[in-house]
Known about the structure:
Elements: E1 6-10, H1 13-24, E2 28-31, E3 35-38, E4 42-46, H2 47-54, E5 66-70, H3 74-84, E6 90-96, E7 102-107, E8 113-117
Parallel strand pairs: 1-4, 5-8
Antiparallel strand pairs: 2-3, 3-4, 6-7, 7-8
Amino acid sequence: MRLKNILIVVKDIEKSRKFYHDLFGLDLVLDNDGNMILTEGLVLQDEKIWKASLDREIIPKSNSCELYFEERDIEAFAEKLERLYPATEYVTHLMTYSWGKRVIRFYDLDGNMIEVGTPG
């Protein structure tokens, strides 16, 4: 068995597709009417489909998981994030841990937490 995809729930699938393309370079692999598979295995699912299949409420900013990306030039990424999405809500601004790893955490357009860190 292997992990195939990670699925996140979004309100506006086109805006979310653009967000993940703009910031992370993820491209559309398959558009299946309310489900979009992006490169790297990220799946965006329309909130209406998720709610209908589970009959449960979505809890944005639940802080129970995060998508993790690595970026060598994290300062340039932080500048790009601020330039392209200035209304971004940060969990932690760009910071450095005592062992030298630099990270930034923020929410996507739907309250899914994202961490971008330097490799290593």
